[in-house]
Amino acid sequence: MLAVVIVIGLLAAFVAYRWLLPRYSDSRSNSNQVIERWFTDVTSRSTLTTAMNRTTCSGVPFSLPSDGLIGLLWRDSAPPYTILNPHTGIDVFGDGAVGNVPVYAAYDGLLSRRSDWLSSVIIKHDDPLQAGRTIWTYYTHMATQDGSHAFIASAFPAGTSDLPVKRGDLLGYQGEYAGVGRPPIGMHVHMSIVTSEDDGTFKNEAIIGNTLDPSPYFGMQLNIADLPARPIQCKS
Ligand SMILES: [Zn+2]
Question: Quick one: pLDDT at residue 2?
């Protein structure tokens, strides 16, 4: 009898985790439909693109790091993410060939690229919205899918530490690298705003609680809770 109860319990947990959780999570997001359209219907791209061309929305500090479809948003639970493990930043899908769509610094700061970072850079900023706080903007996926070639600007070789950059400086180009053992989801750049540890280093950006809602920094609806239509534009 006990064995039957355990088996039924395990089955229920499996169904909840593998079937109900992804479906419920997807229902809390409007992102995957539009990303699918972007990749299956190239003619839709002009109607889905946010093109800021390095300008900022009025009254806010950050400029969009790349032009394109702002597909996955902050706290997004669209698969492969879930409400338990949501997306920590924004994904901008550019219209162009891999290695050709530029990625720019969102704001002035000090750029670092760890010696073991293939496709990523991070920039340290004095938080323009909260004086005295240090925050970071993290940019990744700037390499070929197989990791054989990085698309980061030559000014920022691996091992770069605290190099001053300005908002709008070229960081590199969008790629398809998703990390070892992770499925690629198409060419884009992922960008997140990361908070600091007590010792001043950046926190692990893969954890939602270590990141900030980018909406007030960009003046756009970038929190999935708002379910914004695409293309996302400056808040009026
Ligand atoms: Zn992402």
Answer: 86
> How many domains, the chain?
1
Centre of ligand 1 to C-alpha 1, Å, is: 46
Q: How far is the CA of 73 from the centre of ligand 1 (A)?
A: 8
Residue 234 in domain: no
For 34, the domain range is 2-226
Provide the residue type at 34 as one letter: V
Does residue 183 lie in a domain region?
Answer: yes
Low-confidence residues in the chain, pLDDT < 70: 183
82 domain residue, yes or no: yes
Q: Which CATH number does the domain housing residue 32 bear?
A: 2.70.70.10
**Rounded distance, CA 85 to CA 127, Å?**
26
8-state DSSP, 33: H
- Ion ligand 1 contact residues with beta carbon within 5 A: 91, 190
Cα 146 to averaged position of ligand 1 atoms, centre (Å): 18
Q: What is the pTM assigned to this prediction?
A: 0.93
Asked whether residue 64 is domain-assigned, the answer is yes
Residues 6+ apart with CB under 8 A from 202: 122, 124, 136, 138, 194, 195, 196
Query: What integer pLDDT is reported at residue 19 of this predicted model?
Result: 81
